[in-house]
Amino acid sequence: MRNFILEGKKIARPVLFTTCLLTLLTCILSCTLYREYTIHFELDPWEIGTEFLSLLFPLFVTVPICWQLYYERRDHFLTYTLPRISRRRYLTAKWGACAAAAFIIIMIPYFVSALFALYVRAPQKLWPLPVGYAHVFLDLYAETPVLYALLLSIWKGLMGILTMTLGFVLALYGSNIFVILTGPFIYVILENFFWAVLGMPGLRFVTAFEPGSLSASAVHAVSFVAGPVLMCIVMGAAAFYYQKVKKCSIYQV
Fold first, then answer.
1. 152, 188, 200, 212: least buried by Cβ within 10 Å?
2. Of 96, 241, 97, which is closest to residue 179 (Cα–Cα)?
3. Domains identified in the chain, total number
4. Which helix (H) or strand (E) holds 31?
5. Where are the transmembrane segments (predicted)?
6. Is residue 145 part of a domain?
């Protein structure tokens, strides 16, 4: 626990800044951007105001967090920790602090902006549902919007942890900070394009992160699993490539 707290303090400032900035921005957009749209449910302004996060979230969970591990490797700080703490304990504590930070960066702005969209924004007329309207988990979305927002925010926080872990793996072995900090974002973009070309957008990682981005008929149980599983495979492949092919070491001497 002590190591976890110490590692958390190292990235506290950029994480706090990013969380506050995203919370402020999503709250403002959720209370203003919807005015040009036709809304059918009280939570629609929240989905409209947070759309930009579905594209940029890999940057927000990587840039404020993974840079610190990169500089610890570059400056050989990791090597200096070897006489004091085991490799596994140190890296586990560091990943735990980074995971908590990634969860906070995603979960808090999403949930707080949902509360603003429900209780702070100016009321607007709700239009009748068009024929054939569908939404993922429609009953939950319409009848208990706070619970829907809470559960989805927690889920997105978990997806943020997974995305950050990809950047964490790159930071453990990579030497190019640009690749480390933008790698998860580039991966999500390329994976999104790959599944779109194959005509299977329901398998994208973005769909798992934001199931409301597609019609309810295009989202199924596999949509919540395919993207995360593929990202885990890519992480394993990246670690294997760095270790076995490039012969990179985490602890540089």
1. 200
2. 241
3. 1
4. helix 12-32
5. 54-71, 92-120, 146-170, 177-198, 218-242
6. yes
Confidence band (pLDDT; 50, 70, 90) for 82? confident
Q: Is residue 250 part of a domain?
A: no
Give the span between the Cα atoms of 70 and 72, in whole angstroms.
5
- Kindly report the backbone phi and psi dihedral angles of residue 247, in degrees, each rounded to the nearest multiple of 5, phi listed first: 60, 40
Q: What's the rounded mean pLDDT across residues 89-112?
A: 96
- Would residue 47 count as lying in a domain? yes
Q: Is the dihedral of CA 105, 109, 112, 118 positive or negative?
A: negative
* Whole-number pLDDT of residue 16: 97
Name the one residue in this structure whose structure tokens are 């707290």.
5
Judged by DSSP in three states, 125 sits in coil
Which residue type sits at 233? I
For the entire predicted model, the pTM comes to 0.94
Joined tokens for residue 34: 């919807």
What does the alpha-carbon distance between residue 5 and residue 12 come to, in Å, rounded to a whole number?
A: 10
Do residues 128 and 64 make contact, with C-beta atoms less than 8 angstroms apart? no
2, two tokens: 């002590």
Q: What is the CA radius of gyration of the chain?
A: 20
Rounded Cα gap, residues 3 and 92, in angstroms? 9
pLDDT for position 38: 83
Q: Which residues contact 164 (CB under 8 A, 6 or more apart)?
A: 61, 62, 65, 66, 98, 99, 101, 102, 184
Residue type at position 152: L
Question: Would 148 be classed as within a structural domain?
Answer: yes
CA torsion sign, 213 to 47 to 128 to 224? Answer: positive
Domain extent, residue 164, equals 2-245
How many of the other CB atoms lie within 10 Å of CB of 164?
Answer: 28
- Rounded to 5, what percent of the chain is helix, strand, coil? 75, 0, 25
